[in-house]
Amino acid sequence: GKGYERWAKVFNLKQMAHTMTYLSEHDLLDYATLEAKAKATTQRHDNLRTQIKAAEKRMEEIGTLRTHIIQYAKTRDTYVAYRKAGYSKKFLEEHREEIALHKAAKDAFDKLGLKKLPKVKDLNAEYAEILSQKKKLYPEYRRARDEMRELLTVKANVDRVLNMEMPEAGREKDHSQR
Fold it and tell me: At what angle do helices 31-84 and 96-112 cross, to 10 degrees?
């Protein structure tokens, strides 16, 4: 309807005014400079996101390893008793859950190729260090994300304006590609 058309026109004008203000404030009046800045900002955002994802993955690995070490330590005596009982089926039935936890922990250590188990205290220290690094990266990541979004929006607005100024034949070709 007419109301939507009016709203869209006003909204588009406000977006373009914001775009022009942003371009002049950040001295990005050259398209190549705008494109390079958008690419650099996106790359910075992606690098920070990759660092945070790597930290989260390592924290998850440490948590899993820590759980297995604790389970292994808690069930070790039961497993030793099971071996001394000659792998008795009766003993296995009585302590099935503990033995299964012990074997699962042992399998996890074998998959990781661990010869000597790290100390839980060392794992906790590493976890705390990684967590503090992640917390330091997050505010920078948020700023980079917001800057990237704004810059990509401005670039998209500029691209849209530049495409509108193309000759009629060029615009028809562009529409047929969609």
Answer: 130
